[in-house]
Amino acid sequence: MSALFIKSPNFTQGRKGFKPIAIVIHIMEGTLDGTDSWFGSRSSNVSAHYGIGKNGELHQYVKEEDTAWHAGRVDHPSWKLIKPAEDEAGMYINPNYYTIGIEHEGSEDTDWTEEMYATSSDLIAAIAQRWDITLDRDHVVGHHEIYSLKDCPGTKVDINRLIAQAGGTPPAVPEWVVIKTGFTGKATTKNNVNIRRDPSTRMAPLASVPPGIQLAYDGYTEVGQSIDGNSKWYYTDEGNWFWSGAMK
Ligand SMILES: [Zn+2]
User: What CDD domains does the annotation carry (predicted)?
Assistant: First the structure.
């Protein structure tokens, strides 16, 4: 697939010995034109490898071999494959070195166009092929899974659909769970909240989120494990679960 190359000055040559292991999905909070000039301006100090317009147009700003500046900050990451720093506890290796970033036109609460899904999934498939990346939910992530203080890419994008359309394997829903989908929303954590693979506490949690953090959900089940008489668990589009009783 062909991309219009609009070189950004904001990148690091090479990848400090790393190679891309995952693709990060972003929303522009703006237009493709605006992103062209924002990434083209040295003073913005940011970039991504690609930008996709609502009409499916594809722009490239940084070569995949080089490091774009799209996901360098880390806060309470829920992404399983993030690389911890070897020498500093609680710190991480800058995810820019081992990810490829794709921006999409629009804002966090506007619907994605069919053209955006088509171009983005084609691009994801091509990137996965080039870098031997497994197409599943661990390797295609939303920006906020790395930097929880941001909502990017918002609640409208269906990352599992991108993965499926790119020929990958989105997370399977446990057979014993009846998910009520289409109930997207956000809830704020009341206590420390564990993020889990199942709507139950039978396996070790994937991550723990401190109080006061907003979590987005895609649906829920009323037949998860009952805790204090409450068996309602929220389902995230990452394919994970958190218990409703721990939310405000
Ligand atoms: Zn982002």
Answer: PGRP (cd06583)
The rounded Å distance from CA 24 to ligand 1 centre is: 8
Rounded Cα–Cα distance for residues 226 and 199 (Å): 9
Encode pLDDT of 131-169 as tens digits.
999 999 999 999 999 998 888 998 788 898 999 999 999
Q: What is the mean pLDDT of the chain?
A: 92
> SS3 letters for the chain?
CCCEECCCCCEECCCCCCCCCEEEECCCCECHHHHHHHHHCHHHCCCCCEEECCCCCEEECCCCCCEECCCCCCECCCCCCCCECCCCCCCECCHHHHEEEEEECECCCCCCCHHHHHHHHHHHHHHHHHHCCCCECCCEEEHHHCECCCCCCCCCCCHHHHHHHCCCECCCCCCCCCCEEEEEEEEEECCCEEEECCCCCCCCCCEEECCCCEEEEEEEECCCCCECCECCEEECCCCCEEEHHHEC
The amino acid sitting at 70 is: H
Q: What's the 104 CA to ligand 1 centre distance in angstroms?
A: 9
How far is the centre of ligand 1, averaged over its atoms, from the C-alpha of 51 (Å)? 12
CA of 81 from ligand 1 middle (Å) equals 18
